[in-house]
Amino acid sequence: MNLSERDNKIIWHPFTQAKTAGRVIPIKRASGAYIYDENDKRYLDLISSWWVNIHGHGNKRIAESIYEQSMKLEHVIFAGFTHEPAVKLCEGLQKILPDSLCKFFFSDNGSTAVEVAIKMAYQYWKNVGKSEKKIFLSFDGGYHGDTFGAMAVGAKSGFHDQFKDLFFTVLSVPYPDTWGGDDEVAEKELNAIKVLEEYLDQYGDNIAAIVLEPLIQGASGMRIARPEFIRKVIDIVRSFGILVIFDEVMTGFGRTGTFFALEQIGITPDFLCLSKGITGGFLPLALTVTTLDIYNAFLGNDFKVAFAHGHSYTANPIACAAAVTSLELLLEAKDSIDTINSLHVDGLDLLRSVVTRTRSIGTIAAFDVRQDIIPHLKIRFLDAGLLLRPLGSTIYLLPPYCISDDDLKQAYRTIFEIVDTTLSRA
Ligand SMILES: *Cc1c(COP(=O)(O)O)cnc(C)c1O
Question: Whose CA is nearest to atom 11 of ligand 1?
Answer without folding.
Answer: 144
